[in-house]
């Protein structure tokens, strides 16, 4: 198949525009400092299930009942550590709360220790 120079140039311009659009979308996703606080971390289902020692189904029940705030990016579920901390405080036993605080300390906890 033969493509003349004019068709090739048009095709390359369209491709270049599409790549620039994708690059802009990626830049907005990478700049999470503007979306989240500096000390804010994200946990996925695997992280949180391991941390709380519960099943994925249990996490799903917490989400469905509205007890555990979450959001999804590309069909993957994420939780903010601040939301998980509040959930653990109000719904879990004290030992689980201590374990979570040990693995995900806040600056406020560091100031209290001093």
Automatic annotation (TrEMBL):
Organism superkingdom: Bacteria
Stretches assigned to the Helix-turn-helix domain: 42-91
Sample GO molecular function, one term: DNA binding
Keywords associated with the record: DNA-binding
InterPro entries the UniProt entry points to: DNA-bd_dom_put_sf (IPR009061), HTH_17 (IPR041657)
Keyword DNA-binding included in the entry's annotation: yes
Keyword Magnesium: no
Name this protein carries in UniProt: DNA-binding protein
Organism ancestry: Bacteria, Pseudomonadati, Bacteroidota, Bacteroidia, Bacteroidales
């Amino acid at each position: 198949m033969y493509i003349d120079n004019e068709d090739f140039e048009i095709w390359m311009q369209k491709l270049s525009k599409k790549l620039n659009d994708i690059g802009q979308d990626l830049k907005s996703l990478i700049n999470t400092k503007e979306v989240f606080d500096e000390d804010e971390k994200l946990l996925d289902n695997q992280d949180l299930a391991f941390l709380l020692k519960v099943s994925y189904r249990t996490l799903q029940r917490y989400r469905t009942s509205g007890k555990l705030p979450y959001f999804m990016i590309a069909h993957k579920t994420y939780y903010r550590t601040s939301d998980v901390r509040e959930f653990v405080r109000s719904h879990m036993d004290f030992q689980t709360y201590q374990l979570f605080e040990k693995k995900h300390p806040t600056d406020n906890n560091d100031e209290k220790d001093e």
